[in-house]
TrEMBL record:
InterPro entries: Kinesin_motor_dom_sf, Myosin_head_motor_dom-like, P-loop_NTPase. Keywords: Actin-binding, ATP-binding, Motor protein, Myosin, Nucleotide-binding. PROSITE patterns: MYOSIN_MOTOR. ATP binds at G41, E42, S43, G44, A45, G46, K47, T48. Residues 1-341 form the Myosin motor domain. GO terms for biological process: actin filament organization. One of its GO terms (molecular function) is ATP binding. Belongs to the TRAFAC class myosin-kinesin ATPase superfamily. Myosin family. Gene3D superfamilies: Kinesin motor domain (3.40.850.10), Myosin VI head, motor domain, U50 subdomain (1.20.120.720). The keyword Acetylation does not apply. This is Myosin motor domain-containing protein. GO terms for cellular component: cytoplasm; membrane; myosin complex. SMART domains: MYSc.
């Protein structure tokens, strides 16, 4: 199919993704200006799959010979499983819905050969980390880690996903045709390919597990008025485990959840938080840590793929959020998926 569309005039053959990719490539080469392809549509329409097809065509037409080792285009395609493990989730409409926007820049040299690439991501849906409802799931990576080989499950003190508050708000745990334990291995392998070392992989999964333990910390009223403390021995266990996985002091973690520090011009005031506020604080920490982990992963993938500072022009492919329309829309924060307004 790629062969057929290569160089064919736009409109000459049936409508096809490859015709669009070919037209943008020709225009870039003939006029010497960068191009962008916007992939738009409802959630589940097939935008992400189309983006991958477009990239495959650009790799075919502007790629280098396989003998030159692992090429830029191969690395971009191989980074997909990592991004999808951390940025995709099951929603009502799509079992593998992207919960972030993605702009992939494929850079070319003067001869029209791919010389570098960069992936930019936008607005990961952070609220999903601590709030999911039936029949949706949280991000795939949480279920994958719970289904990891026994030694990993033990190392991160995990177990059945039904044990964790951030996962058990929804009754959906398994997906038809998806084997989370197999996907865990695939994600690990993809991480190796994009240059994430075993130590870094361990750190990534420690953070993922710590977020699950963080979510299981409940609070009760403390001794002072409007103060809070971990509710029971179970909450203390999850607090200690989260601190261990984050490699921080358990007391410091507890204080960061149960107290707020207000800095004025003259002094620093520490204010205790009531159980409800401490719970909000816990969720805020989980969301920010997860989104920073996601940004770190994108940066890591970019530095491993490599950008070409000398590149003459580029083709950008924008895979935006799928439109969703709910009967009841939840209150939006800046971090929510803008498409769910
Ligand atoms: N060209 C295709 N061939 C076969 N199956 C496809 C194709 N495109 C999409 N699908 C199926 O539809 C599902 C949804 O596609 P995709 O994830 O690309 O949608 P999307 O528009 O990116 O959705 P979202 O906005 O929710 O991320 C895929 O998981 C796949 O099963």
């Amino acid at each position: 199919m790629m062969e057929q569309y290569k160089g064919a005039a736009f409109g000459e053959l049936s409508p096809h993704l490859f015709a669009v990719a070919d037209a943008s490539y020709r225009q870039m080469m003939n006029e010497g200006i960068s191009q962008s392809i916007l992939v738009s549509g409802e959630s589940g329409a097939g935008k992400t799959e189309s983006t991958k097809m477009l990239m495959r065509y650009l790799a075919y037409i502007g790629g280098r010979a396989a003998a030159e080792g692992r090429t830029v285009e191969q690395q971009v395609l191989e980074s997909n499983p990592v991004l999808e493990a951390f940025g995709n989730a099951k929603t009502v409409r799509n079992n593998n819905s992207s919960r972030f926007g993605k702009f992939v820049e494929i850079q070319f040299d003067r001869a029209g050969r791919i010389s570098g690439a960069a992936i930019r991501t936008y607005l990961l849906e952070r609220s999903r980390v601590c709030q999911v409802s039936n029949p949706e799931r949280n991000y795939h990576c949480f279920y994958m880690l719970c289904a990891a080989p026994p030694e990993d499950v033990e190392r991160y003190k995990l177990g059945n996903p039904r044990m964790f508050h951030y996962l058990n708000q929804s009754n959906c745990y398994e997906l038809d045709g998806v084997d989370d334990s197999k996907d865990y291995i695939t994600t690990r392998r993809a991480m190796d390919v994009v240059g994430i070392s075993p130590e870094e992989q361990d750190a990534i999964f420690r953070v993922v597990a710590a977020i699950l333990h963080l979510g299981n910390i409940e609070f009760s009223k403390g001794k002072e008025v409007d103060s809070s403390q971990p509710k029971d021995e179970k909450s203390f266990f999850h607090l200690r485990t989260a601190a261990e996985l984050f490699m921080c002091d358990a007391k410091a973690l507890e204080d960061s959840l149960c107290k707020r520090v207000i800095v004025t011009r003259d002094e620093m005031i520490t204010k205790s938080l009531d159980p409800d506020s401490a719970t909000l604080c816990r969720d805020a920490l989980a969301k920010i840590v997860y989104s920073r982990l996601f940004d770190w992963l994108v940066n890591k993938i970019n530095s491993s793929i490599g950008q070409d500072p000398e590149s003459k022009f580029l083709i950008g492919v924008l895979d935006i959020y799928g439109f969703e329309s709910f009967k009841t829309n939840r209150c939006l924060t800046a971090s929510s998926n803008s498409a769910s307004i």
